[in-house]
Amino acid sequence: MFHFAATAAPAAGNPLITLVVPFAIMFIVFYFLLIRPQKKKQQSRNQMLRALQKGDKIVTIGGLHGTIVSLTDDTVVLLVNDATKLTFERNAISHSVSAAASSESK
Questions:
Q1: Are residues 30 and 65 in the same domain?
Q2: Do 99 and 63 have their domain in common?
Q3: Residues 31 and 43 placed together within one structural domain of the fold
Q4: Of 99, 94, 91, whose CA–CA distance to 61 is shortest?
């Protein structure tokens, strides 16, 4: 009777490895499909915001078009028409029209 118990097959593989490997593969897939592209997009947006200068034509997140009159570290004053100046946070800028137009023509 004890002889049969001693000849039983041992458990196959390490259960820790079979649990960790699928999670590692999922993390790698998420990194390359979601995290890495989002980081690159954020870096390019931060670079665009740092490169803004007085006189650039921009579009805000709300769709307002204007020309930059003055800049500080965190605010931008836009000239919307001949007499209207509006102050926005620098983060409220969606994109620069002059930079977008030059990149489309290339």
A1: no
A2: yes
A3: yes
A4: 94
Query: Counting every residue, how long is the chain?
Result: 106
pTM over 0.90: no
Regarding whether 86 and 57 lie in a shared domain, the answer is yes
Give the mean pLDDT of the chain: 85
Question: How far is Cα of residue 56 from the mean position of the Cα atoms in its chain?
Answer: 23
Rounded-to-integer distance, Cα 59 and Cα 62, Å: 8
Contact between residue 78 and residue 58 where contact means Cβ atoms under 8 Å apart: yes
Let me know whether 57 and 105 are in one domain: yes
Token pair of 3, please? 């002889």
The HSE-up count of residue 41 (CA atoms within 13 Å, CB side) is 8
Place of tokens 């078009």: 65
pLDDT at 73 over 60: yes
Q: Is the pLDDT of residue 31 over 90?
A: yes
Average pLDDT over residues 74-89: 94
